[in-house]
Amino acid sequence: MINLRSVTHYFKFTKQQRTGIVLLFAIIIALQIVYFVVDFSIPEKTFPQEQQWLSVQSEIDSLKTVKYNAVPKIYTFNPNFISDYKGYKLGMSVQEIDRLLNFRKENKYVNSAKEFQEVTKISDSLLAVISPLFKFPDWTQNKKSFKTDRAEYVRKEYPKKEKIVLLDINEATQEDLMKIFGIGEALSFRILKQKEILGGFVSMEQMKDVWGLSPEVLFELNTHFKILTVPNFKKIAINDASLKELAQFPYFRYALAKQIVTYRSMNGNFKNIEDLAKIKDFPVDKAKIISLYLEF
Fold first, then answer.
1. What Cα–Cα distance (Å) separates residue 95 from each residue in 52, 84, 99, 162, 202?
2. Residue 154: its pLDDT value, please?
3. Which terminal CB of the chain, N or C, has fewer other CB atoms within 10 Å?
4. Beta strand 294-295 with 236-237: parallel, antiparallel or unpaired?
5. Strands 225-226 and 167-168, how do they pair?
6. CATH of range 236-295; options 1.10.150, 1.10.10, 3.40.50, 3.30.70
């Protein structure tokens, strides 16, 4: 049997201890009452502009929905005026684009999808994809009517213009350039400096890269100057050039040169400009011009 005297020994307290126990229970009960009575939740803050913000956000969300659900509009174009970048986006190779550009240099035009394929040598599958986008002039579809209208046209005689002698832009001096209206000492110096950096121009399109030339001045330059001889410059060996050498090429700069070296080390040598164009931030619109400065 358990000795009750030994147990009751633990429940003997002094007067001060009993008072402390009573006060402790009183405090616990008081805290419990405060917990259930007092609301400790944090009041939600409101702003005067909240409703205005919500309405603006709702309008933005609705506009996003309209944008994502919108069907893209398809624009037709005349394939005679396809640029390098446009042809690349359509899936044409550099050789196919060059065939069309050389055909146009002879002042000739394609007037049907079939003629376009005969000139560019594109595949039937690619033609089937892009030909619905072609838009040829109305007169090409009704040549008989056009010839009749032409016969009724009375030709007027105009005084002959003085023939413009074309100069090679790579042979032009500062004095030759300053003869163009709108080009002074500063602009002519920039053009010659750009030629020096590149080793020579390969396309008149490169005039657009010279800062400060207005569209009117560019037109005059193309009227008086052409690329008559390809300059003899040292090409960049794209598969062997160092990061420093690539970074010094005006069309690359350091960031793109670093990506080229990284891509080359991970995927092997570049075979053509199409491989190089796969790199992020590569200036695809200048791919044809850049390829003339590279050696694969």
1. 58, 11, 6, 36, 17
2. 54
3. N
4. parallel
5. parallel
6. 1.10.150
In sequence order, which residues have a C-beta less than 8 Å from that of residue 211 and are 6 or more positions away? 190
What tokens does 22 get?
A: 């009573």
The CATH number that domain 167-226 falls under is: 1.10.150.320
pLDDT at 70: 62
What b-and-e string marks burial along 194-226, b requiring 16 or more CB atoms within 10 Å of the CB?
Answer: bbeebebbbeebbbeebeebeeebbebbeebbe
- Calpha distance 28→38 (Å, rounded): 15
Instruction: Sort residue 81 into left (φ over 0), alpha (ψ -120 to 50) or beta.
Output: alpha
Below-70 pLDDT ranges, the chain: 1-11, 43-50, 66-74, 139-164
Tell me the pLDDT tens digit for each residue of 200-213.
Answer: 999 999 999 999 99
* 3-state DSSP assignment of residue 17: helix
| pTM of the full structure | 0.44
* Residue 168 DSSP SS3: strand
